[in-house]
Amino acid sequence: MRVALATFGPDEFETLHAACVSAGHEPVAYVHCRSMKPRSPTDARAAEVIGRLTEALPAGMDLVLPGTAEGLADALAGYRLDLLVVYGFNWKLPAAVLRTPSAGVINIHSSLLPKYRGPAPVLWAIRNGDAEIGLTVHRMDERFDTGPILAQQGGIPLDDDVTPQRLWQRIRPVLGEVLGTALDLVVRGAPGVAQVDADASHAGFMEPELSVVDRSRTTAQVHNQVRMFRFMGPRHAPVAEVGDRWLKVLQTRLEPAEGIRLECADGPVWIVESAPAQPPAIRR
User: Fold this and answer.
1) Do 169 and 247 share a structural domain?
2) R_g (Cα) of the chain, nearest Å
3) Is residue 284 part of a domain?
4) How many domains does the chain have?
5) What is the pLDDT of residues 262-284, one digit of tens each?
6) Is the peptide bond before 114 cis (omega within 30 degrees of 0)?
7) Domain containing 223: what range?
8) Cα-based distances in Å from 92 to 86, 119, 236, 246
9) CATH number at residue 89
10) For residue 15, which of 184, 182, 171, 185 has the smallest C-alpha distance?
C-alpha cells in the first residue's frame, strides 16, 4: 500500500515508517500539524519541530504542512494513497480527508478504547492513578476516537515519576507491533470491531481549577495531580497555599520525605520540589 503518515515528531515518524516498511508498505509523505486548529497561526514551537523533522526526513520524502483541512485533502489526493496512518494529530479530520485514501484512515490512540476517548488519554490515566496504559488502532470516522477497533495492546507501565521520554521508550515497541497487526487487517479488508459506547469515558482537556491544589482531596488525588502536571513539562505545575505563601508544586511523595508536609483530606503528602508562585486567579 501507498501510505502517508501524520504525527508530531521525528521519533514518532521514524517508528511509524519502520512499521509500515516492515509490513511491506511504502510511506510516500509525512504530514505534520503546525497549529492546534485549521486556519490558525503556526504554533510557537512548530518552527523548532519542523526544523528537526526536515533534518530527519528520509531522502525523497515529502513533508506536508497544511494550513487548512481542505488543503490537506487536496494535497493528499495527489499521492494516490491507499491509507493514511494518524498518531497524535491535533485536527478533527473532515470527511474529505477520510475519503481520500482508498482503504481509509486509521488512528493510533493512547488508551484501550473506548476508555479515554479524547485528546488527553495519558494525562487522564496519570491523573486517575492508573498503573498502565495501552494502545488502540482503529478506523477513523467523523467523530473522535469512535471508529471500529483493528488492534489493541495494553500493559505499558506508568511509573510514579513518569516522563514523556521514559514512557516513549515503552510505547515505541508496542506501537510497532500493534500497527503491524492493524496493517495486515487493513490489507485483508477487515472492517474492525465496533466499540461499545456504554463503556466509553472521555479524556478531554483539564479544567482550569485543577491548576490549584485542593487540600480537601485525598493524598492520592493530590499526588496524581502533581504527577500529571510534571509529565506535561517543567513549565507546568499546580500551585498550593502553604502557610502565608504560594508555591508551585513540582514533585510530591506519598511517603515521609525531606520537604514540606501538606495536609490533605486523608493525610499528608510531602512536597519535595517546589518554587515560589503568585496567588492564582482561580481560588479554592
Assistant:
1) no
2) 21
3) no
4) 2
5) 999 999 999 999 999 999 886 55
6) yes
7) 209-276
8) 11, 10, 26, 39
9) 3.40.50.170
10) 171
For residue 26, give the C-alpha cell: 511504502
In a domain, 255, yes or no: yes
By DSSP bridging, strand 267-276 and strand 245-253 are antiparallel
Sign of the Cα pseudo-torsion (119, 4, 76, 150, in order): negative
Q: What's the pTM?
A: 0.95
Give the domain CATH number at 263.
3.10.25.10
Q: What CA–CA distances, in Å, run from 269 to 39, 66, 173, 176, 217?
A: 44, 46, 35, 39, 11
User: Which of 169, 199, 229 is where one domain is finished?
Assistant: 199
C-beta of residue 269 within 8 angstroms of C-beta of residue 257: no
* Residue 129 lies inside a defined structural domain of this protein: yes
Do residues 34 and 91 both lie within one domain? yes
Domain assignment present for residue 249? The answer is yes
Among 180, 170, 143, which Cα is nearest to 3's?
180
The pLDDT tens digits along the chain (284 residues) read: 999 999 999 999 999 999 999 999 999 999 999 888 899 998 888 888 999 999 999 999 999 999 998 999 999 999 999 999 999 998 989 999 999 999 999 999 999 999 999 999 999 999 999 999 999 999 999 999 999 999 999 999 999 999 999 999 999 999 999 999 999 999 999 999 999 999 999 999 999 999 999 999 999 999 999 999 999 998 899 999 999 999 999 999 999 999 999 999 999 999 999 999 999 886 55
Is residue 122 located within the same domain as residue 246? Answer: no
- Whose grid coordinates read 505534520? 32
Q: What is the structure's pLDDT at 234?
A: 84
Is residue 80 within 8 Å of residue 103, measured between CB atoms?
no
Last residue of a domain, one of 156, 179, 199: 199
Q: At what angle do helices 10-22 and 46-56 cross, to 10 degrees?
A: 40
